[in-house]
């Protein structure tokens, strides 16, 4: 089991780095910046140079990718209901993500910013969860059609 968790952990890293880079690049373009910085000035103030800041960002993005990759294993626990799997997955991912996103400088530590981040997280989570459920339903329907054809 530990080997599977480690495999998922390392498997998720490149996805986290890729998405982190794309999100911060799109954000920089949207704000009209001429020089790329992986996060805001509050985050940048913790580093003596740009390379250290980029390395810290890459590590945090990799951890975010690992978090999402490892927590998907919860959906493989066959003795749990889908509701329990989903609620546990949501609780772990939202709490882990909020910590890592704060460390990455994506939002300041105030109530409005935290509530806003959680709201955006919930919207994205629901979209991804809903599309996953639709995909699973289509797969089940396709399997059922194949079984019915054999009868």
In brief:
The protein has 151 residues and is mainly α. The protein has helices spanning 2-30, 41-44, 50-71, 82-103, 111-150.
Question: How does this model look, in words?
Answer:
The protein is mainly α and 151 residues long. It has helices spanning 2-30, 41-44, 50-71, 82-103, 111-150. Helix 1 crosses helix 3 and helix 3 packs antiparallel against helix 4. The longest helix has 40 residues, at 111-150. It is elongated, with a radius of gyration of 19 Å. The chain starts with a helix and ends with a helix. The model has no long low-confidence stretch (mean pLDDT 92).
Q: SSE layout and pairings?
A:
Blueprint: H1 2-30, H2 41-44, H3 50-71, H4 82-103, H5 111-150
Helix pairs in contact: 1-3, 3-4
Described by the principal axes of the CA atoms, the overall outline is elongated
- Mean pLDDT, to the nearest integer, reads 92
Span between termini: 39 Å
Q: Kindly estimate the percentage of residues that lie in beta strands according to DSSP.
A: under 5%
Q: What structural category arises from helix and sheet content?
A: mainly alpha
Give the number of helices: 5
Helix content: over 70%
- pLDDT < 50 runs, ≥5 residues: none
């Amino acid at each position: 089991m530990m080997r599977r968790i480690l495999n998922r952990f390392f498997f998720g890293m490149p996805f986290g780095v890729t998405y982190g880079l794309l999100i911060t690049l799109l954000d920089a373009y949207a704000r009209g910046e001429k020089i790329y910085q992986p996060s805001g000035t509050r985050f940048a103030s913790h580093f003596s140079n740009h390379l250290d800041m980029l390395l810290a960002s890459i590590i945090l993005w990799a951890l975010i990718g690992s978090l999402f990759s490892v927590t998907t294993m919860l959906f493989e626990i066959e003795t749990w209901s889908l509701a329990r799997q989903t609620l546990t997955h949501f609780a772990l991912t939202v709490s882990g993500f909020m910590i890592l996103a704060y460390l990455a400088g994506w939002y300041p530590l105030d109530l409005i910013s935290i509530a806003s981040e959680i709201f955006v997280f919930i919207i994205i989570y629901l979209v991804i969860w809903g599309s996953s459920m639709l995909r699973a339903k289509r797969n089940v329907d396709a399997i059922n059609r194949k079984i019915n054809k054999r009868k």
